[in-house]
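Translate sequence into structure tokens.
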Amino acid sequence: HGDWTDGTITHLGHEYAIVVCHPDYVKTHGAAFNIQTVAQKQVVAITGSETDWARLSDLYDLDLTTPSEVYRVDSSLIALNAVITGKGAVIVLESFARLYLNQGLLVSPFAYQLPIQSSHFLIQREGTERREEVQLFSQWVRKLYFG
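Result follows.
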């Protein structure tokens, strides 16, 4: 939450989670493709994010039901690779999915965004700002987030 007391703290921004799936997964459902259909079928649940579908449902008043098949995985990378193979849909951080979306491997078929409560921060301990490797890393991270 950025409440550290030592060093220089740079807030890198708030994150959102989005629903992603394989483009062919959308096509297999045809005209019946909607968030309710996706949430009822195969979903991938990432450890620590098991309540994301319910939170999304509450946030947008979607009345989503419990999915018939849930694949439980312990990382976002595994979840993304699972949905690339057509194994349903996952709610994952947009920043983690961005590369897959840009390459066309996955799509985000809905405009729903689930705000994530915690954020990412860059923390530099005092005295490290003069070290070249710290400067280079800090510049790289800031460029990723701020362009």
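Note: The two ends are 23 Å apart (CA to CA).
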